[in-house]
Every structure is written in structure tokens, then in C-alpha cells.
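Q: Hi! First time doing this. I have a protein sequence and I read that you can turn it into a structure. Is that right? Here it is:
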Amino acid sequence: MTTNSAFRTKEINDRCGGSPRSKHLEGLAMDIRTMEMTNDEKVEFVRLCASYGALAFGFYNRFIHFDIHSKRNWGSIPRRYVPVLKQFKLSPYIRG
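A: Yes, that's right. Below is the predicted 3D structure, encoded as C-alpha cells:
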């Protein structure tokens, strides 16, 4: 498993095109490279992150973003992750 990004300074965040409100700036987020992972491994990774307190996920072609700031979501959610997000009542499935 490879960490693409964790804590970022404002300068690094600006350079990589990060949001001005990025949770990386507060040390509350990580992006994990997933290109070498199977779909089952990705789902298990999300399950483990959620079980240890991750509250938000962003799913991208090459990585998964997760953070511990608040329950929220953005972008599309691949179907394979829906059962895990529902199990942990994470956005957009806060009610399960």
C-alpha cells in the first residue's frame, strides 16, 4: 500500500491542485494509491478505514481519499462500496 498524500502544507496543496478547504491541510486526510489492489482489497480497505473511524471517502481511478473530519461525500460512489458505507452509516447512507 502506498500513501500518495497525507498532511500538506498550503504550498504543496496549491501545487497539487488541492481544495483550499482540504482536510490534508489539517492532517485529517490521506490518499492511498489503489492501482495495484483488486476490487475486493479496495472494499476491505474501505471497511477497515471505516471501522477505525474514517468518516468520509472520495473514490478516484488511482486512489481512495479518506478523512476523519465529518460524514460527507462528493463525486460518484462505485457500487461495490455501497454496502460498507451503509453498514457504517456513512454519507450518503447516514440512516443505513
